[in-house]
Amino acid sequence: MARPPSTRSSPTGPAAGSGPWGAPKTAPASAAPTGAANNPDTEGRILVGRCELGKREAAAAGTGTRDAYLSLRLANRHGLVTGATGTGKTVTLQVLAEGFSRAGVPVFAADIKGDLSGIAAQGEPKDFLVARAKEVGITYAPDSFPVIFWDLFGEQGHPVRATVTELGPLLLARLMGLNDTQEGVLNIVFRLADEQKLPLLDLKDLRALLTFVAENAATLTTKYGNVSSQTVGAIQRQLLVLENQGADKFFGEPALQIADLMRVDRSGYGTISILAADKLMGSPRLYGCFLLWLLSELFEELPEVGDPDKPRLVFFFDEAHLLFDEAPKALLDKVEQVVRLVRSKGVGVYFVTQNPLDVPESVLAQLGNRVQHALRAFTPRDQKAVRAAAETFRPNPDLDTAQVIMELGKGEALVSMLEGAGVPTMVERTLIRPPSARVGPLSPAERAAVMAQSPVAHLYDTPVDRESAFEMLQKRIEEKAAPQEASTSSGGGGFLGDVLDGVFGTGGADPATGKGRAGGPRPASRMSTTEVVVRQVARTAATEFTKVILRGILGSVRR
User: Fold this and answer.
1) 34-47: string of b/e by CB count within 10 Å (b at 16+)?
2) Residues 73-98: what's their mean pLDDT?
3) Which of 5, 161, 169, 269 is the most buried if burial means most Cβ atoms within 10 Å?
4) What are phi and psi of 347, to 5 degrees?
């Protein structure tokens, strides 16, 4: 949902100083050539690796190999990186992210295992990296990239926040696992918030408004439909589960500004925003809903640009199956719609997962650039996945795609990229090029140093709690209760006074008028014997009762 324009400084202006956010990259004369100085990417293309050509292609080309490139002009046609665990998906993701950054394209990626954080550190010319670079036909050139770390829990990166209103009832219902009836009540809550101008910023706002809806269910039912306290109670319990998972840290302000994901440093490198997702994986629905919310925010906020020369932002969705597992049809339709339309905003979406079957066919059909690492076919489902993966590629008459998928080694992949007028190339067996930055995680001290130099630290590290639905509803309750309290305080001695009146026989009479507080006549001065006995018994009982009352008020009784 759109927000008012930000008054922050331009996202392309990094802080002064050394490192990726300071002066342009330069290397000492004695140092090995850096990635910037020895960039294997060509104009408008990212080098992915070197293909091994089949007999027909080799004969036509006069060589047995050729380079595999990803065209920046077609990079917003989305992509898919798949393969079994340990086959090199994360390295391929890093290679693509580095290529986009060099081209001045900002990148957002989730870091599931922490390995991707090394992209912020200079690479080292280790033997296996140098050897792979030689196989691919390039010189290994260490490099580092401008990185901003984010974390929904605010522990390994700058806090990422969104308001409840921005997430909306559809994603929130998915996040809480609500049924249709409960989702309907949640829609009523959002509608009521809009009509009564009650900002829903965090979970306490939503909880307060749910309580208000339950207390006024009879009134609201005639306008919005049936609202039961049992349904509201069920939603409240799911909110408690969310809070226990730490989701309360995600909801609030300051909310993430999309412009802060689209920074470019002074060297022209695009910022790589890395979401620390290792802890987040313990709350898979929160992970999936957050990334889908971010994607929909990009769609809603960015203007139409058609097919630019290069993407404005590239979005890597690791462990993509978490978005689609048990997702209702309404949510799947929304994913398909966003993926289909966000291309015209200049955003490329790349799903990273183990199995191509993890992605629904309607979404899979829109992913033009594909990298398939090895799959193992140990079960019937695995064999089906291999066949499905093979069938998604443009056939190569010199290649048994299904067989090769099971034979690929680590760092090898089947690659098919869009070229020309958006037509996919024939699938080729490819050696993936080595990354230029570090392969492996940063240490906690290194991560802290990167965060200390971050250009957004002062924008998000301190939470803001402005007046919202919770405070507004509390104010209404206090204003409603004030006249009642005033009426009660002007009513005389209250309950204790009535008890004392009974003990001492005043009966609440007004000496001036001879009437009681209720306006009745004063009791007669002469009483019958029966009345005297009854009064004495009542007085004794009242005295004992008064002692109990006074003990509660004063804490003890003097004997």
Assistant:
1) bbbeebbbeeebbb
2) 94
3) 269
4) -110, 130
